[in-house]
Design a protein that fits this description.
Elements (H helix, E strand, L loop, with lengths): L1 E4 L5 E4 L3 E4 L20 E3 L5 H4 L2 H8 L2 E5 H9 L4 E4 L4 E4 L2 E7 L19 E6 L3 E4 L9 H8 L3 E5 L8 H11 L3 E5 L11 H11 L3 E2 L7 E3 L1
Parallel strand pairs: 3-4, 4-5, 5-6, 10-11, 11-12, 12-13
Antiparallel strand pairs: 1-2, 1-14, 2-3, 7-8, 8-9, 9-10
Helix pairs in contact: 5-6
Amino acid sequence: MKITWHGHSNFEIEDSLDTIVDPFFTGNPTAEISWETVSPDVLVVTHGHADHLGDAISIAKATECEMICVNELAKYAQSNGADAMGANIGGTIELGMTRYSLVPAVHSNGIDDAGFGWDAGSPAGVVIGDSSVVYHAGDTALFNDMSLIRELYKPKVALLPIGGRFTMDPEAALMAVKLIKPEIVIPMHYNTFDVIKADPYKFQKMVEENTDTEAIILQPGDNIDV
Ligand code: NI
Ligand code: MN
């Protein structure tokens, strides 16, 4: 499994399928490529905020890829021409060898593109299981049931937001690492904009001093094999 960061919460996970989670390219000052250059098999969108839904509908229409997200957001995407498959929290969609499980995220889920007040159901995280298992937490606060995600899916890699204000900050994300116990944690959702400034090196130091997890800081375009 190869994991590439495109900045913010936008990760490409290449295994038996090529999956992009939260394909925020346009308007993402840290994305190293544009949406027109990607051709995934599957998009997963954790929630409707513009920095996560991103270019999903454009990509889905241009490439005819599948899109996986919570039911209400799927209906919105379908009404805009995307081939979206709805699921709900706790459920799994299997495509070939790959399993996509939606898990809780403590956040909100308005669809920015559709104007204020258009609510898209529950926000989500996603666990993607193929040759390895990766947990993308979406935007979330710390919650104790991350320990259940640990028990049920045993993720090798956790992708956790650390930017604060809208999500966990580095201190809360450290507690999340203690609950999830992944082999590897990669911080995300920081320093994209001034309001989510955080020091990933401080987070890395705290994780490595307090847990058995390795914290890996990627630059946009970097990838790791797990
Ligand atoms: Ni959000
Ligand atoms: Mn966000």
